[in-house]
Automatic annotation (TrEMBL):
It comes from the Eukaryota. The lineage of its organism: Eukaryota, Metamonada, Preaxostyla, Oxymonadida, Streblomastigidae. This is Uncharacterized protein. It comes from Streblomastix strix.
């Protein structure tokens, strides 16, 4: 009796294992059936990325992510001509430029030249462009010394200046092109597309009402005789 017990114990787990597995006929449709049509397989194989392409895509996506984190804005939502910098933002960039070391484009600073546009505006744009050049030159210096992280940061700074310049010049163009009745609606965060839309019409109505309310006390003063 003692010799018969071990075989009986060994057979029982094997029977249980077989009971848990589905028959082979049931496995075939679920595990081996391929519903992808041959022509789709061919196209998928043609459009599949190689490992090298996948690596490049990852690298490009990392650059996009860096830009989005820098501006706290999605690349898809960025307007190349719509960067309206705040006073704090400009001061922060100026402090960053003052910390540049090494190669500089022009130690004497920007040369003043008169043009057709407003002199104050030209001087502001000239300074921004000059500081942008300094940032780009510092990026080149960082690359030459092997400091790739610093070079990337200075490239972002230079890009930031370019966006601000584009935003300011775009704002000037809008001021020149928009009819006088709409110019009062333009602002740092309001462009032509917003001005000429339905919201701008509502704002014009509000401005007209406000102007009328302001004029009413003046009319009463002229009508009411002085005692």
């Amino acid at each position: 009796m003692a010799d018969a017990d071990p075989p009986a114990l060994n057979i029982q787990p094997e029977n249980n294992l077989r009971a848990e597995q589905p028959p082979a006929a049931l496995q075939t449709p679920q595990m081996k059936q391929d519903t992808v049509l041959p022509f789709m397989k061919s196209i998928l194989n043609q459009t599949a990325h190689t490992p090298e392409e996948e690596h490049q895509i990852q690298q490009i996506n990392s650059a996009k992510l860096l830009i989005e984190q820098y501006y706290n804005e999605k690349i898809a939502d960025m307007d190349p001509t719509g960067r309206r910098a705040t006073k704090y933002e400009l001061e922060e960039l100026d402090d960053r430029i003052q910390s540049t070391l090494g190669l500089e484009v022009n130690k004497k600073g920007a040369i003043e030249r008169a043009g057709d546009a407003d002199l104050e505006f030209e001087a502001e744009i000239c300074k921004l462009a000059f500081d942008g050049q300094r940032a780009a030159a510092t990026a080149i210096t960082s690359l030459a010394t092997g400091d790739f992280e610093s070079a990337t940061q200075w490239m972002l700074t230079s890009h930031h200046y370019d966006r601000i310049i584009a935003g300011k010049t775009q704002q000037r163009r809008e001021q020149a092109l928009v009819p006088d009745i709409f110019k009062g609606l333009l602002g740092p965060n309001v462009g032509v597309s917003e001005v000429l839309g339905q919201k701008s019409k509502d704002k014009l109505k509000e401005q007209a009402k406000t102007a009328k309310l302001i004029e009413q006390p003046k009319e009463l003063q002229t009508i009411t005789p002085k005692s």
